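Archive maintenance. Older records in this collection stored only the sequence; we are now back-filling the structure field for every entry so that each record is complete. The fields below show one back-filled record exactly as it appears after the update. Entries are processed alphabetically, and Exo-alpha-(1->6)-L-arabinopyranosidase is next in the queue.

ARCHIVE ENTRY
Title: Exo-alpha-(1->6)-L-arabinopyranosidase
Organism field: Phytohabitans flavus
Length field: 986
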Amino acid sequence: MRAPRAWLAAAVTAVLLAPVAPARAAEPPYPRGSSQGARAAEPAYPFRDPDLPLAARIDDLVGRLTPAEKISLLHQYQPAIPRLDIGAFRTGTEALHGVAWLGEATVFPQAIGLSTTWDPELIRRVGGAVGQEARGFHAQDPANNGLNVWAPVVNLLRDPRWGRNEEGYSEDPYLTGVMSTAYARGLAGDHPTYLRTAPTLKHYLANNNEVLRDTTSSVLPPRLLHDYEYAAFRPAIEAGAATGVMTSYNLVNGRPATVEPSLDAEVRTWTDRDLMVVSDAYAPGNLTGPQAYYTTQAEANAAAVQAGIDSFTQDGNSPASTVAALTSATEQGLLPWSEVDDALRHIFSIRFRLGEFDPPGRNPYAAITPDVIDSPEHRRLAREAADAQLVLLKNARGALPLSPSKARRVAVVGPLADTVYTDWYSGTPPYTVTPRQGITSRLGAGATVVGDEGVDRIALRDVATGAYVTATGTTDADAVTVGGTGAGEAAQFDVFDWGEGLLTLRSAANGRYLGYNWGPFVTRDAQPNGWYVQQQFKLEGQPDGTYAIRYAGYETREPWFPPNRYLTVDSDGRLALGAPTAATAARFAKEVVRAGTDSAVAAATGADVAIVVVGSMPAINGRETNDRVSTALAPGQAALVKAVRAANPNTVVVLENSYPTTVAWEQANVPAILWTSHAGQETGNAVAGALFGDTNPSGRLTQTWYRSDAELPSILDYDIAKTGMTYLYHRGTPLYPFGYGLSYTTFGYSPLRVDANGVSLDVTNTGRRSGVETVQLYTHFGRSRAEQPLKQLRGFARVSLAPGETKSVRIPLRAGDLSYWDVTRSRPVVESGTYDILVGASATDIRRIATLKVKGETIPPRSFRAPVAAWTFDDYSGTTLVDTTKAAGTAVAATAAGQWVRYSDVDLGGGPGQATVRASSDAPAGIEIRLDHPTRGRLLGTIAVPATGGRYAWTEVSAALRRTGGRHDVYLVFTAPARLDTVRLS
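Back-filled structure field:
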């Protein structure tokens, strides 16, 4: 049973703590004096008294609930309880970079863009605006527009191919912690009692791949778990900025995150405030579905509650299956009522802090009205954030900023020049400014701005009939037909290349995208969108020169999806999804009406400057359930850049995307490159402002940009130290390093002044323009017992400087900040020694170096006289990590002979005579004990592990050892697949 938080157990009067029976048959269904159908008069229940201690109010309310009512409140859609005058409550308003899915709202830059500002105060203000708008929507519809917001996303961006890269902040845990704390603090507000909204961190834990995300296991050795993953989630919880976490879909060390025991054992220890933990959507059902971790849903739901889940996000607004499973769990004795009550206390602690049970005058946030939505203030903030997130990647020979007086004819070309794309978790912007619109507005009437999207316009002719694919309208009833007799405008489509062979086809006649609609194909949508993104196709060339059209709207493993992937023509002359292979599909001839590269080159030729806007489409280039296989720019877009650059040497690339991209050719050959995220409604104005010098780009990258896909390991390998991923461990030369970003001015750094509490220096603007420098402090320790990062961010400071101005910068740094997880004793440690202090403008642009002597600890040699958890190894080869039991524990598993784990610097004393392990195996196996090398090292003995009869059937087995004393590295080498929980040498 989970112990209640100390603050919830505060002493109150005996009257208030008197137990209340779960079922209160004698209590009338409505308070006295009220009438059914009307809002009840305020009852004299203690939980309604805002002057009582919160713990007492929660206990009083929980005690008044019937068993059925208690169970009903554990679902995402918590029903109203009229007899207590309790309204409905819903968890889960999406608020990643603006309020999503509820109507028009201010849309700020994507989270990855917000983070490139390196400006926590700005991010806090953005979070505050989003929190206000969430309150505004709540005022419109309290029952459906909830105040429990699912943001920010804290998952670390260790791999740029993750389909949801734009949702996170950084590959670094410290920076992620700072940014997520700032955003969550803004969402929550700064009132000492009440919450503006209740921020929930997503997605706990180690969720950074979409492929098979509900069945893959993220393997986290102890140091990676504590120093990387926990380190990202902990700050916002510890600071009181976030009020809970959402669990992820994946498994962690073999156990589904939905039943991750660290929810209670770890996360809830980070704060004295109570937390509400929610599951991800449909994740509870995965426990008995694709994960097959439990046999029955009653068992699964009981385990989830006991692990720390308070609210089940399952089956949308239908709670029936969740209620049935939890009811069955209590009836079977799988789930004690005390655990249910604990979950309810967590839920109500948040609902009370949101002010739900208090008079409106008590809670200042209750006075927020819908007027805050899309307010002028928020529009200005959206522009400020869009300006601040821009990153100048290249600026050869001062190509930027452009001079408005000299740029009288400007070509703005490229597939993103005339569009502002939104992502899955974006809100609906009240307006948008495209890059070409922003540039046109900035230059005014005296300049000529020409544009072209640079995409091919084609017609598709059915070879069998000679008829053309033709758009007939923009509604679901307007099926696309194969009946046109000529390649007129209704038969023409603009082809957008998004890479990996994926294309979208936009009707030239109506500007809408060709898409599937679980029936006929239609041209209905203004943008590719939706969960299945049904506007994606591949034109697959055939040996005879024709094309088969593959529908690529949703590549799924789900058995219900029809096997037919290729387009045919039905008996009514409509496009249909009617063939499983290209061999049986309709064949089409592709007629190029206009070559996009030619039209873009024509626009760029003779222009004073050509601005090429390329990048990604957020619904296509990675999204939920879909990772990228490449970070390369789409081939058609890359060819466009090369053609425009050849036609006009004054070419600037604006790269608008959500993830690091391998633009090595562009870096080598284009004079200037400006990066922006999909930055919301003010994207075009921000881009124009930076290009023409109204603003000075100050953004800095929060991920390593690798030179090619060849540098990337399997996306499923989470051990960044082993794979050399992120700036922490990458030994190659990146295209752009972590922390990188140029400016229109330059900065000088004075020598460092280091003391026990931090690092100081003077920074001078040595250029001719005002600008912002982000001073970054890294450390490195080379004489550690454990492998340490090449360098690690410990702090940063943004400093705004006028030309010639100098300011003193102070970055706090204390010895405790240098701690790391010691696997030998399972606790944090600061080692004694001399640490390198590295200060610069990026992870590779180090301007000043100093040293800091730290008096900490010397880690003693290991002892194996008592059982040691096997997963606390120092190194491994081939092995993985699995669950010891379904409830708790982590063990080592070998999947093949020759795999091993190593424990460094073990003190064997005078020489142990016996080795004892706790192991399990499906078939007989052996574990060799070797010293100092896994194959050539001295063999002390081999432990025979019998077939134990199951994954969780653990047994202790021993073997005699050849006696060898002293200090050695001890290797445990598996001779066959087996699982190892503990080891002892005695």
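Update note: The first helix runs from residue 14 to 17. Residues 407 and 608 are 5 Å apart (CA to CA).
Entry marked complete.
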